[in-house]
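Standup notes
- HV: blocked on the assembly model, inputs below
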Amino acid sequence: MSISKQSRDANRTAEVSDPADEARLEEVLKTVPKGALTLAGIALGLLLLAWLAVYFLIFLPRGPIS
Amino acid sequence: MDEQEIVKTELRWGMVVAAAVGVIVAVIIVSSFVLAMHPPSHVETIDPTTLSKSREFAEGNLGTRLNPDGSVTVRIIATQYAFVPRCIPVPQGRPVTIRITSPDVIHGFIIAGTNANTMVVPGYVAEVRTVFKDAGDHLMPCHEYCGFGHSEMWSLVRVVAQSKWHNDENGRASCETSR
């Protein structure tokens, strides 16, 4: 096993086994998805509204084509 | 939040996005059927080398002509670097069929402020059908690079109110007679 791999494994074990970090991670994971979903939902809603506005207020009033 | 919950959330979000795309596609499909709208896709061939000798696109036959049913047909030639004719009168609120072709290279046809927009390819007649709701002038520039004089290639489409529309006994109209 190389020295660098040994070092990475040691770091990973330290990260996982640190109870303070684990608790903090759990705490963050409880709230982060709600915020991300809210932000993504607002962005998607605005995109949909903007598309509908361009279609009904600009494209259709410019007249039919065929 | 465990891994299973994360996967569920992602799936739910995927459904929300799919629903948004579904709304957009449904709006396009329903309005296209209700308004009978579709992109111009008229495939009709013509010999570009003998255009000026053809019956339809001879110089004397270009421009606006009123049909017996009250609709209007406009015939245009797009050539380096001008549209012929330079000013095109069309009546407000009546069906207009625009037929356009090119004897030399590919040109672009667009009437600013409307959805009339197509390519003009030598050897083919492009046909666009539309109705102009409001009176006024629209710029009609070439929007496909066609050579050094491309930026100077444009015409004017003049939408004339019914009360001001005049055509001769053959149904021909010009910007001088209708203004």
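- HV (later): unblocked. The radius of gyration of chain B is 22 Å. Chain B is about 20% helix and 30% strand.
- Next: hand off to the docking folks.
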